[in-house]
Amino acid sequence: MEIKNKIQKPKEPSLVIALIPLIVMLLLFGVGYGIYKISSQVLLIAAAFFTGCLGLFLRFKWKEMEEGIVDSIHKAMPAILIMLCVGILIGSWIASGTIPMIIYYGLKLISPKFFLVTACFVCSVTSLATGTSWGTIGTLGVAFIGIAMGLGVPLGPAAGAIVAGAYFGDKMSPFSDVANLAPVTAGSNLFDHIKHMLWSATPAWLIGLFVYFLVGLKYGGGRVEDKTMTIITQTLKNNFRFNVLLLLPMVIVFYFAFTKKPTIPGMLLSSFMAGILAVIFQKASVLDVATAINTGYEAHTGVEKVDQLISQGGMMSMMEVQLVAFTAFSFGGIMQRTGLLSIILSHVKRFTNKVWSLVLTTISASIVTALATGSSYLSMILPGDLFSPIYKKKGLAAKNLSRIIEESGAIIVPLIPYSMAGVYIKGVLGVSTFSYLPWAIMNYASVFILAIYGFTKFTMAPKIREDETQIGS
């Protein structure tokens, strides 16, 4: 019996074996995602399957690895439920007219006297309201590029200001997929994560605005009326009835966030209020509201750019992000249960003795993953899963990690020419990645700010509770 037990005991993996799943994943994403554009979740399942086979080779039982998967997903469930509520929130807020009203007044009230500053600011507001950088770039971004051509503003700086603004709003928006995924991966919570990013994202954004202001002075002129912008604002005005009461859903969410009350009830209450407002002000039927909550709001304004901008939301819109999360945590769960991750961590820890070295190592890992995979999701998930135990052991709050992986990973991806984001931006704006890269100041300035915080320990918050998925951690 003793001989039998000895034979069945799992093998202790070496560092080379522990690194094999990561190497396989990089190859899968380099070829499958980079060349054949295969969906991330398919490649993650393939990586999880390979890692599971490696686990069996190391004499781990499937039941043990399955328990690792379930445990990994279980820890992320509260945040994944919030992601589902975000889909509900977006659909209901658009149906009520809340988001269209924010976009409308954002465009009407901001004077384009200084083009670069205006482009960045308006794209920031729009992306913050909608939670989509791609949607903002594909609509208002195209409009601003048209204005730039008319004014004789170089397209590199123009596109850079658009990209920086769109991604600033995206990463700071509670409706954004990356803003939701980062805390899920790191083990923090959405609202603490966003508030913590203010310390690094806001200075980076302001630095960009200051540069745009100085550079844009030579392009400055009077107020510019662009046909596309006029069409967008007029179409929104014609299709939605605006009223100050449409801000109530926002007030509810902010109240729950700042008073540190449970997140999900606040989001559902806000969505319920938005549904009532949609019936009252937009004359929507109960079925229309229910459809917007389920599959998203579907606009039929007759103007393609406006339809593209506000046809969003719904629980189903979050399914792909959640699938990526589930498949990634399946991979991570097997890595943890088989001890492969702990072997890697034991070697990585050599470079994380100090807070500054831990921060720099996390930043480097996020950027390398972004360069290797070209994926916003994977550039957060892989480093987040890898470094989460180290941050806990160092007594650092998980929101430090979630901030770093989003700003060093997801926000760097649009600056990579071969990434989907880079290809998309080049396609819709007609400006090469290398032309707008130096001018997307916010996207990379925040990385330097994070490094400075790592050296000075400024804003590196300590862990104050074990369950950091609760607001106020």
Q: In words, what does this structure look like?
A:
The chain is mostly helical and 473 residues long. It has a domain of 241 residues. The chain is 73% helix and 0% strand. It is built from 23 helices and no strands. α6 packs antiparallel against α10 and α7 packs parallel to α21. The N and C termini lie far apart (49 Å). The N terminus is likely disordered.
Helix content: over 70%
Number of helices: 23
Number of strands: 0
User: What is the end-to-end distance?
Assistant: 49 Å
- Let me know the average pLDDT: 87
Unreliable residue stretches = 1-5
How many strands, which pairing sense, and closed or not: the largest β-sheet?
Answer: none
The SSE order reads HHHHHHHHHHHHHHHHHHHHHHH
SS content category: mainly alpha
Tell me the radius of gyration: 23 Å
Morphology call: globular
Strand percentage: under 5%
Keywords:
about 475 residues, mainly alpha, globular
Task: Describe what is shown at a glance.
Helices cover 73% and strands 0% of the residues.
In terms of topology, how is this protein built?
Elements: H1 2-8, H2 15-33, H3 40-57, H4 62-96, H5 98-109, H6 115-130, H7 133-151, H8 155-172, H9 177-186, H10 190-216, H11 227-239, H12 248-258, H13 263-281, H14 286-294, H15 304-310, H16 319-337, H17 340-348, H18 355-373, H19 378-393, H20 398-410, H21 420-429, H22 433-436, H23 441-456
